[in-house]
Design goal:
Number of strands: 7
Number of helices: 0
Helix content: under 10%
Largest sheet: 4 strands, antiparallel
Strand order of the largest sheet: 6-1-4-7
Order of helices and strands: EEEEEEE
Structural class: mainly beta
Shape: globular
């Protein structure tokens, strides 16, 4: 689906699959990317996760190469 998504992992641990890459996320990590790449997440720890998600719909300003992970 076209657009952008941003996730801030506030608590817990999860694995985020983005295209062919897998990111091991811990509390405090963020990810932001173009949603046209295949993506999904999976909780990997024993603790419940708390996640903040922000998403947008397509616009002419959307860059097809957008993608970032930060710790």
């Amino acid at each position: 689906h076209p657009g952008e998504v941003f996730c801030y992992l506030m608590a817990g641990e999860m694995e985020y699959h983005l295209g062919d890459e897998i990111f091991q996320m811990r509390a405090g990590d963020t990810i932001h990317h173009n949603t046209e790449k295949p993506h999904f997440s999976r909780v990997t720890g024993d603790v419940e996760t708390t996640e903040l998600w922000v998403s947008t719909t397509p616009s002419s300003a959307l860059s097809s190469g957008l993608g970032a992970f930060s710790r």
